[in-house]
Specification:
The structure holds two protein chains of two kinds.
Chain A: E1 7-8, H1 12-18, H2 20-39, E2 45-52, E3 55-56, E4 59-60, H3 64-72, H4 75-85, H5 93-105, E5 108-113, E6 117-124, H6 130-177, H7 183-187, H8 197-206, H9 212-236, H10 242-245, E7 251-252, E8 261-262, H11 270-301
Antiparallel strand pairs in A: 2-6, 2-7, 2-8, 3-4, 5-6
Chain B: H1 12-20, H2 35-50, E1 56-57, H3 59-72, H4 81-104, H5 108-137, E2 148-149, E3 152-153, H6 160-176, H7 182-199, H8 202-219, H9 225-246, H10 250-256, H11 269-278, H12 293-297, H13 304-332, H14 340-357, H15 366-377, H16 385-409
Antiparallel strand pairs in B: 2-3
The chains are: A alpha+beta, B mainly alpha.
Amino acid sequence: MENTPEFKLTEIFQLARKHRFVGLCCLVLCLFLEVWFYNYPPRGVVGEDMLIAGSNMGNSLVDLNSLWARIVNDDALMLEIIDRSAICKHTEQSKRLSFLKRSIRQDLKFQIENNTIVKISFKRPASNQVRPFLNYFTDTFVKKLDAIGMEGLELRRQSASVQFANVIERMKFVASIFSISGIHELLSDYSNKPLQTDKILAVFQTVNAGSNIGRVLLGELLPQYTAAGIHYEKYFRNDMQFLDLFPRSSVILTSRNMPATPVQPFYELIFILCPVAVSLMYLSLLIVLRARDSQDRCDASC
Amino acid sequence: MQVVESREDLSWCWSAYFLLIPFGLPLLMGLVISDLPALCLIIITVIGILSGKTITFGKTEAWFTFFIGCSLIGLEILQVPDFYLRELMAMLFLFVCFKITSDFLDSRERFDKAVVLTGNAMAALLAINTITVFSYNTLAQELTGFFFTSAKLSWPFEFSGQLGISLTLLFPVCLCSRSFPWLQRVLLYVMLIVNAGAIASRSVFWLCLFEIIYIEFFVYAKKVAAHNILKGLGLFCIMAALIVFFGEDFNFQRSLGQLEASPLLFDEPRMMTLRKTLQTVPAWIQGYGLGCFKAFNELEIHNTPLSILVETGFMGFISAFMFIVTIFKSIWWIDSAKHQTIKKGLIISFAAILFNGMFRNLLTNRACWFILALCYCSRHFQKDLATDMATTLQKTTAAVKTFSEESHRIP
């Protein structure tokens, strides 16, 4: 005979009836874990915002890495966003700063794809803490991005405009010296008209032979006119299909109500694993209690 | 396949199982050669259960079940389920082997036969490897290259560490299962030291030395001072001869403690791994999930308790600790009068598990689970406390009765 008390698995139902309190405790534990993991999935939930940064035909107007570093490391701005989103319950400045450092900065990430598409992701333990902060943060980021981007765009527009005007004035000058008619009309009010290269070439076909030098000089200026015109149109034309892909001001693609998703891919499995885990623990506790009972009985009989 | 009915006989399947325990030749899908008879035995057991045979459960099984339960709520299981499932399946397989082995070895005869088979297989392995090491250092270096991994002796395992663990765990229990004449013992010691030296592991080498000294002075002890002094001198001479012979060999030097360039302790890669592991303290409440730590940290924790703590959390650690405690209790309560030598052997092997666990992850080590099964089956060789108590009680009652009768007779 052995001293280690052992039992058969068929006794398990008797034991379960005997130790009801243990069963109740395990049931409560199981429910608690289910609710806990429902609210706080393992490794948390992540919310993502996709946005297209304002650009000029795909050339970003702002250095996104620098802007990100500028915003994320700005304590005052970040605290303002935290306050607006109301995800920090602390009122003391030191605790709020600590929260910012430990919980926000570590979980806030961004990624650039194809120069202009920006993915901002924010991870939190619970899903109700993600959207309020992420929406405010993305809005602030876009606001700053657009403000700086517009400044850059304006400068570039001025530069393109000056270059184009310069070429046009030179062409007008040549046309007036050599009395080439029709050019002046084509080049007037250039900002509201598309490029007139074809029409200018047509004018060349019609002018008389006396203005050959003028035609040569205008011909020399024509490539510059076309290049400067294309450059100008990139900044000023608003009817291009290309702008859908590379808009000049930023566009947030993700809906503001897009729910956060669990970080782990097979998250739903946890709702099966938890009861299985607690059942195994319950079974093991019953075996241990059975062993203890039989030990006690043995001690009592002895 | 025939199921053994007699308590003394071993079927071919059990014999193959015990014979192949020291051999870890890799097959497919992480299986090794010794798993084949184990699979047959599992099938036989399942058939037995389906046909009405009952199996019993004790505290040890309960704590293992609790451990598996804790591992199921790991943090990263859902992220890398493949890592978890692989580790879980390996552990469950080894636990089933542990359970059927410990249930099967319910008599001393079976136990002795099993240990003799494993011991003989281990002696054969030691002999083959010793010949290989001598050949490697002298003549046929190219022919024996197959036995080495990264210039360290590893056959029949994939890595030298596994061979080291297997030897250090199986050696004491095999040597203590029966009485060996001194010449055989000396031969076995020499072979063990040569093997341990070629494995190039400091922990294995020093543990082997400790085991030899312990076995010689405590298991095969004689209360004659001159005899013991001679024994000590003999061991010293063997060691000195081996060091002289293998002194130039780097593996042997490393086994003795020599390191090439790195400082001795704190900058060792393993210490750095331990430090990195300790930095993941917040995850210990829940645990990563069995086998999931290495998926995220690209490093393996060479320490079993820490690995359990990190991968299954505090609850898992406590259940694993209780599992080990219940097994240790079954050795501790062995009837010392009848099984003195084997008790010592099991305790040394058990201590070797604990020692090796400090330097390696033993959760899925076959030799370790086999030794635990041998330790756990010793619950069948315990003192029958209940019978003893009842007998004592009966004797006392009879004595009291007699005394009271005698006292009544006295006028």
